[in-house]
Amino acid sequence: MNMEFAERVRRVEPSATLAISNLSSELEAEGIDVVDLSVGAPDFPTPENIVQAGKDAIDAGHTSYTTSNGILQLREAIAEKLTNQGIDAKPSEIIVTPGGKMGLYEAINTLIGGGDEVVLLDPAWVSYEAMVKLAGGSLTRVDLSPYDFQLEPGLDDLADAVSDETKLLVVNSPSNPTGAVYSDAALEGVRDLAVEHDFAVISDEIYERITYGVEQTSLGSLEGMDDRTITLDGFSKAFSMTGWRLGYIHAPQPLIDEASKLHSHSVSCAVNFVQHAGVEALSSRTDDAVAEMREAFRARRDMLAELFADHGVDVPVGDGAFYMMVPVADDDQAWCETAIQEAHVATVPGSAFGAPGYARISYAASEKRLREAVERLAEHDLL
Ligand code: PMP
Ligand code: GLU
Fold it and tell me: Of 74, 380, 96, which is closest to residue 259 (Cα–Cα)?
């Protein structure tokens, strides 16, 4: 059959993060020992109490469909969490999704179509661009690289980029791929622009619990933001639950009502017993496990920055998430190719995030493996 594919899918490339991680798995399958620092997945097991809650939920027969937007118990727990972050959230304003990615997809497809303008802060996580393109939106990009990836010094650039034509801005703090946590002044600057030009903001807060010595402020908690913010969060990162696929969006009721149509016609609902495990994850019983992982990430970040500095590479470190953008070579794609094929260290080219000249490293790997990675890169004259 001569398959003619929809223009929509021809607009995008496969996810660069997942593509490299797949390549790394293929090399591993050939018997090559690859230090995989490509994908952003915590290397810890899911905390035991969450695993047990998932098993108990299966045993209790929670295996059928749930209410499309998610079980009330979980939406109540999420609303409580968001309320503690200063967001005025009701369970009815939440959709529980199979992974935060699906929440993002639903939000973007509910708001964006036919050339609507979406503004991204570069470097930006790979899937924002792809989802906007799939939805038929147009992209305007603001480069924060000259400002060590911080937003506050780049606010003037953002002000120049937005206009009354702007429909949506995506903010991700703590940031993937830079680890930057935006200051309150930066977020207030975003708020002022959003109110002035009347655009919506997606605040991707999936790394909200992974911060080192700073507090992350939720954009939706700022005055003037409650009726224009879509807050995205998920369980993958904070609770090491990437494979469980659980996330959510909170947004003003009219947007949720529209997005629910997409949700009910596509995924129907998130997995029933996984939602029950999610209730347990949000309980205070998980706090210690989250704190332990956070401390491990912090130690790895500090160790890695020192190791790079020992090799004369000055890496801008952020105060959150578990990524670093390492300045590499003008041709970051070629650098990453050599790194994986010859040094057997998997990283993601900065160009995939709109930041050529860098490679993204996920330090969600053991200190031993991180040390090995730097040694291998140095041995192959890549540092
Ligand atoms: N947002 C950001 C910034 C991410 O890095 C990820 C990572 N996958 C997601 C959203 C979505 O994660 P998930 O679908 O696993 O919840
Ligand atoms: N968000 C993670 C990353 O950036 C997981 C992969 C993905 O969903 O892109 O590596």
Answer: 96
R_g of the chain, CA atoms, integer Å: 20
Residue 15 Cβ < 6 Å to ligand 2? yes
377 Cα: distance to centroid of ligand 1 (angstroms)? 27
How far, in Å, CA of 268 to CA of 260, rounded? 9
pLDDT, tens only, 294-322: 999 999 999 999 999 999 999 999 999 99
Nearest CA to ligand 2 atom 2: 40
pLDDT of residue 2: 80
Kindly indicate the confidence band of residue 336, based on its pLDDT and cuts at 50, 70 and 90.
Answer: very high
Q: In what order do the strands lie in the sheet with 247-250?
A: 94-97, 247-250, 229-234, 200-204, 166-172, 117-122, 138-143
* Residue 229, strand partner residues: 201
31: number of Cβ within 10 Å: 6
Predicted confidence (pLDDT) at residue 1 exceeds the cutoff of 90: no
What is the CATH number that goes with domain 7-46+287-378? 3.90.1150.10
CA of 21 to the centre of ligand 2 (A): 9
Interval between CA 312 and ligand 1 midpoint (Å): 32
| Ligand 2 neighbourhood includes 176 CB (under 6 angstroms) | yes
Query: Does residue 100 have its Cβ closer than 6 Å to ligand 1?
Result: yes
> What are the C-alpha distances in Å from 177 to residues 9, 80, 142, 346?
24, 29, 15, 15
CATH topology of domain 64-283: Aspartate Aminotransferase; domain 2 (3.40.640)
Q: Is the shortest distance between the CB of 17 and ligand 2 below 6 Å? A: yes
| Same fold flag, 7-46+287-378 and 64-283 | no
Q: To test the ligand 1 pocket, which listed residue (15, 17, 182, 236) has its Cβ within 8 A of the most ligand atoms?
A: 236
